[in-house]
Design goal:
It is a single chain. 44% of the residues lie in helices and 19% in strands. Helix 7 packs parallel to helix 9 (156-163), helix 9 packs parallel to helix 10 and helix 23 runs antiparallel to helix 24. Strands 1, 2, 3, 4, 5, 6, 7, 8, 9, 10 and 11 form an eleven-stranded mixed sheet that branches. Strands 16-15-12-19-20-21-22-23-24-25 form a ten-stranded mixed sheet, with helices on both faces. A four-stranded mixed sheet has the order 14-13-17-18. The protein contains 25 helices and 25 strands. It starts with a helix and ends in a 5-residue tail after the last strand. The protein is elongated and about 120 Å long. With 688 residues, the chain is an alpha/beta fold. The chain folds into three domains: 12-133, Indigoidine synthase fold (3-Layer(aba) Sandwich); 139-334, Indigoidine synthase domain (Indigoidine synthase fold), CATH 3.40.1790.10; 338-683, Ribokinase (UDP-N-acetylmuramoyl-L-alanine:D-glutamate ligase, 3-Layer(aba) Sandwich).
């Protein structure tokens, strides 16, 4: 009861605020592009107007110039903002008395009270980490104040660095603070402190050397990025300080400012100024002693840190992309060693009826032929794979009835892996009664309610991750199909979607699932239902080389390609087109398109039933892919399997497992001029 009440309260408050993203940051997050976090207290409290607004604009420009999305962070009217608009920057720079500093301590109160303010180093780190932004650039971090051993005046920045894994690029800490105690405190917090350069000299903001040493050094942005990646990979939980010395062109001014700081410190001591009054006194005296030059040098340091932070963000993004590519390649190689195909969808018992004569009222039953066969698209594909000695696992459901037992027995007799077919208590095994005429289905009656129990809980992440391909038929509940698609996308496993009926296929397409599909296998009717409004001129350049009889269906196939996943090495659409054979469009990740056409077999089958022919084709095609056969061979194997299915009442003909018989048959067809034609081979972008 308490847990449920907490969840309700949590949901109420969660709906009251939400994080806002600039379009620039949102696009970068979606497309895995480099992002640099930037704080905003330098705008609200650190600099006078208009210098604060000008600096905010200039550092964002530096980011963009270096190919990085700037993520200036703040809380606006109670909403955490990741990236600010120009209007928001102006609002923060106007120095409103209501704008507050927002550190970890202030975050919850600021959101709950719908306040506006600039995030400090610690506040920015929190928001950056929540959005997986690993690099943050600022002027300088807070530290241990002089006399901090007595006053316990220690910046929250230091403890945040100890518990939030974000790298902070800065110029160290100002010498008005106790640098030695600051470094000791960071060591206690387990924070790596690294100087950017050839030495370990820790900078003191306005000077390159404080007389103290960092824990280590990194000589380049690439080295810094590699250290950040290792820190994140080890899941240490702590941040990193990348200390950037003042550029040489500002060193002279920096030394003058440092001398002014030391004089101001002595004056404060002589005047017995302490506590909260000491920092404002020193800053004002330094500004007076340097005639305002400290401000210009301060701005230059911030810009330099943002430049370095941008370079590190770019290098880290590049390394992560390469690492992801290696991971994808590794997982792909693992799948090559695992020929197992996971098939998810329907198991049916099909009753095929062919009438020999018509009957009327009061007459006896019509004479004809009645066959009981095993059906279901997923089951058919799995049987086809099994008969060709391909390892496959079928995930499906049957009822707790006699037909369910019959279905399991038939699958086991073939040698199919039935361990993941669930028997649903008090449910009927799916049955379809089909009326045939000359082998084609005229109409049918079905009870597929059992399919509703094929839910996401039956599909484990390990099943998907360990497969070379995952095949889903559209008799699978849509929610389950989407769940499988997400797992395939996560583990870079190619997803094959097999439509079972135009209406169901359209539901899957409308869900956006094609964005995670690698291979689609609709027939011409199913494509027409989806793209009945397509106009050919949209891809007229492709049509220049394509025979007119294929133009419309190829437009539809290429439209599908444009909607499909670009995560895998290629995406493809496989479509049977009746008497004209089969078309296969495959497009690589580099937008290279090939269009294959294989005519129908040069001899005519003695058709008993068309039910299952398309499933046989897909099963044979996938078996060829798993056997590393050429595209031409895969198309011919699929055609052979479909041909034999047409000649049998069984959805999958038992003879397809005889490889010698298959090879002899295909060779005999090839002697009759039966070969694959390449209709298009070249670069192609749908948007063009």
């Amino acid at each position: 009861m308490i847990t449920r009440a907490f969840r309700q309260v949590h949901e109420i408050y969660y709906r009251q605020f939400h994080t806002l993203f600039s379009k620039e940051v949102s696009d970068a997050l979606s497309n895995n592009k480099p992002i640099l976090a930037l704080e905003s207290t330098i705008i609200t409290h650190g600099l006078p107007n208009p210098e604060n607004y000008n600096l905010a604009q200039s550092v964002e420009t530096i980011c963009r110039t270096n190919g990085v999305a700037p993520a200036t962070m703040a809380v606006m009217a109670g909403s955490p903002c990741i990236g600010l608009s120009n209007e928001q920057l102006l609002e923060l720079s106007n120095k409103s008395a209501s704008n507050i500093k927002i550190s970890r301590r202030d975050m919850a109160a600021a959101i709950q009270q719908k306040l506006t303010g600039g995030t400090t180093v610690s506040g920015t780190m929190i928001l950056a980490h929540q959005q997986n932004i690993p690099v943050f650039a600022t002027g300088g971090i807070g530290g241990v104040h002089r006399g901090g051993e007595n006053t316990l005046d220690v910046s929250a920045d230091l403890t945040e660095l100890g518990r939030t894994p974000v790298a902070v690029v800065c110029a160290g800490v100002k010498s008005i603070l106790d640098i030695a105690k600051t470094l000791e405190y960071l060591e206690t917090q387990g924070v790596t402190v690294a100087t950017l350069g050839k030495t370990r000299d820790f900078p003191a903001f306005f000077t390159a050397k404080s007389g103290l040493l960092s824990h280590t050094n990194v000589e380049s942005a690439k080295d810094a990025a590699e250290m950040i990646l290792v820190n994140r990979t080890l899941n240490l939980g702590s941040g990193i300080v990348i200390a950037v010395p003042i550029p040489e062109e500002y060193a002279a001014d920096g030394q003058e400012i440092e001398n002014a700081i030391q004089l101001a410190l002595r004056e404060a001591s002589d005047a017995q100024i302490s506590g909260n009054a000491i920092t404002p006194f020193i800053l004002q005296r330094v500004s007076d002693l340097t005639s305002g030059r400290s401000l210009n040098t301060n701005l230059a340091l911030v810009r330099n840190n943002v430049l370095v932070g941008s370079q590190i963000a770019v290098e880290l993004n590049h390394i992560q992309r390469k690492s992801h590519a290696r991971k994808v390649t590794h997982e792909y190689n693992l799948r090559l060693k695992r020929n197992r195909i996971l098939v998810v969808g329907a198991v049916n018992v099909d009753i095929l009826c062919t009438k020999y004569e018509e009957t009327g009222v009061g007459k006896d039953l019509a004479r004809g032929e009645v066959e009981h066969v095993m059906g279901g698209v997923a089951r058919n594909v799995a049987e086809c794979l099994t008969r060709q000695n391909m390892e496959s696992t079928l995930i499906s459901v049957v009822g707790d009835d006699k037909l369910g037992k019959l279905a399991l027995d038939c699958c086991n007799e073939i040698g199919m892996d039935t361990r993941k077919i669930k028997t649903v208590p008090e449910s009927s095994t799916p049955v379809a009664q089909l009326l045939l005429k000359e082998g084609d289905v005229l109409e049918g009656i079905c009870n597929f309610s059992c399919h509703e129990h094929l839910n996401a809980e039956l599909i484990s992440e390990a099943d998907v991750a360990g497969s070379r391909y995952v095949v889903v038929d559209c008799d699978t509940p849509l929610e389950t199909g989407i769940h499988i698609a997400q797992l395939c996308h996560k583990h870079c496993v190619p997803l094959v979607l097999e439509p079972t009926a135009p209406v169901k296929f359209k539901q899957f397409v409308n869900s956006g699932i094609l964005g995670k599909v690698a291979l689609l296998s609709p027939n011409a009717t199913e494509l027409a239902v989806i793209f009945d409004d397509l106009e050919i001129p949209e891809i007229s350049r492709l049509m220049e080389t394509i025979p007119q009889e294929f133009s419309l269906i190829l437009c539809q196939m290429v439209r599908c390609l444009s909607m499909m996943s670009k995560q895998n090495d290629s995406r493809s659409v496989l479509t049977t087109i009746g008497e004209m054979g089969v078309l296969y469009c495959v497009q690589s990740s580099e937008e290279h398109l090939r269009v294959y056409h294989l005519p129908r077999a040069p001899v005519s089958p003695c058709i008993k039933s068309t039910s299952g022919a398309g499933d046989s084709f897909l099963g044979g095609f996938l078996a060829g892919l798993c056997g590393d056969r050429s595209v031409e061979d895969c198309l011919k194997i699929g055609t052979f399997c479909a041909f034999k299915s047409l000649e049998s009442f069984d959805t999958i003909d038992s003879n397809i497992g005889d490889k010698d018989f298959a090879a002899v048959t295909i060779r005999s067809w090839e002697t009759l001029g039966w070969n694959v034609n390449v209709l298009y081979d070249g670069d192609f972008c749908f948007d063009s």
